[in-house]
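Subject: design request, 383 residues
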């Protein structure tokens, strides 16, 4: 299988952690970015509660991220230097870097991901705690590996994670956007036009992995992810056998703690009740369900959601999937699932377990044997 990686790095920080001064300095460019022609799929910033509140109030922050690449030499922490060697840098953001590292003293070519997170804020410490807690829980959600799995230095933390070798779900969506994949009848993506192994059922099976990763994260930690988007889904492939995993737990929040799960996330994937700062509904898994619905929308349809890159929440809060012209009529089972996940009333959205069951049934109802097998196969069985 040949994958052309348009963004061959793991997203770091998340712009949510970007200093607001940096956002203000670049805000004068944002309108130019968003109004130049038809909206295209882009790499969007995530925002913490302060940033999202300011957007809701009319702040002029840019929504599109940018990354800086440098060639400065980097040394791993002393404890890892005899065991790991940096092969190449995968990505760099304002608050950290991600590296592909070769595991030394093994008979096979084994690699891991090593991420350096600058700073020692409570958010950084919480992310490391959650990555460690997810260790060994699910291949479909990011986790820490190794011993030690993280190392504290004077300037931040290093953490070791499994390597996902085939880029982001965002990369596949961008390939689809740039190809005949989008030139189909009925407003649907024709994934088979990307070539084997891609088909719509195959992509739904990868999305099922994402749903399972979110469910595992909810059940194990009790936290909400709060920043689900295509950039935070990584793909790993061995030949034609691929699986997907949820990454980046930096904005995850504990709904058991008052006010921790307020406005946060990436515009275009923030649920309407979160934009409205509802103190009750923002603490429910239904906010992650809505974000998953936005991702599924991009996987299934050849148009971006009407609320994509929603600057201040006005589009998300006004959106009604029952009146969306991009969703074909009469709806098929997958269309009905999208509509239910993007239901404006958070109490009427299906829960994660129900979504998983619906996806399994939809995939089993196809003739794509590869996708059908993926429903019951573990990642190791797919390779």
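Subject: RE: design request

Done. Sequence follows.
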């Amino acid at each position: 299988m040949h994958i052309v990686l348009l963004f061959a790095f793991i997203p770091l920080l998340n712009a949510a952690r970007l200093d607001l001064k940096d956002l203000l300095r670049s805000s004068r460019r944002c309108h130019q970015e968003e109004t130049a022609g038809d909206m295209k799929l882009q790499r969007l910033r995530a925002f913490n509660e302060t940033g999202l509140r300011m957007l809701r109030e009319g702040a002029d922050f840019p929504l599109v991220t940018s990354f800086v690449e440098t060639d400065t030499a980097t040394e791993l922490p002393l404890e890892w230097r005899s065991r790991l060697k940096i092969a190449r840098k995968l990505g760099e953001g304002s608050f950290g870097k991600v590296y592909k590292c070769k595991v030394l003293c093994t008979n096979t070519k084994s690699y891991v991901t090593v991420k350096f997170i600058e700073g020692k804020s409570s958010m950084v410490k919480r992310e490391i705690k959650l990555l460690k807690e997810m260790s060994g829980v699910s291949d479909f959600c990011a986790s820490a590996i190794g011993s030690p799995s993280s190392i504290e230095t004077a300037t931040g933390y290093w953490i070791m994670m499994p390597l996902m070798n085939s880029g982001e779900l965002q990369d596949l969506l961008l390939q689809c956007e740039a190809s005949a994949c989008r030139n189909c009848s009925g407003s649907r993506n024709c994934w088979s036009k990307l070539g084997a192994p891609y088909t719509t059922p195959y992509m739904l099976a990868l999305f099922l992995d994402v749903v399972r990763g979110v469910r595992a994260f909810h059940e194990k930690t009790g936290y909400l992810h709060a920043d689900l988007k295509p950039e935070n889904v990584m793909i790993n492939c061995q030949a034609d056998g691929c699986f997907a995993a949820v990454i980046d737990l930096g904005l995850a929040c504990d709904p058991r703690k008052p006010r921790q799960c307020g406005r946060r996330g990436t515009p275009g994937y923030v649920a309407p009740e979160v934009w409205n700062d509802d103190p009750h509904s923002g603490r429910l898994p239904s906010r992650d369900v809505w974000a998953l619905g936005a991702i599924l929308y991009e996987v299934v349809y050849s148009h971006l959601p009407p609320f994509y890159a929603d600057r201040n929440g006005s589009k998300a809060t006004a959106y009604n999937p029952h009146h969306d012209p991009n969703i074909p009529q009469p709806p098929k089972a997958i269309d009905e699932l999208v509509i239910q996940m993007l239901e404006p009333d958070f109490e009427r959205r299906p829960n994660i377990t129900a979504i998983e069951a619906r996806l399994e049934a939809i995939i089993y109802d196809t003739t794509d044997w590869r996708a059908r097998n993926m429903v019951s196969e573990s990642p190791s069985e797919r390779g």
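The beta strands are 84-93, 96-103, 111-118, 150-152, 156-162, 233-238, 241-246.
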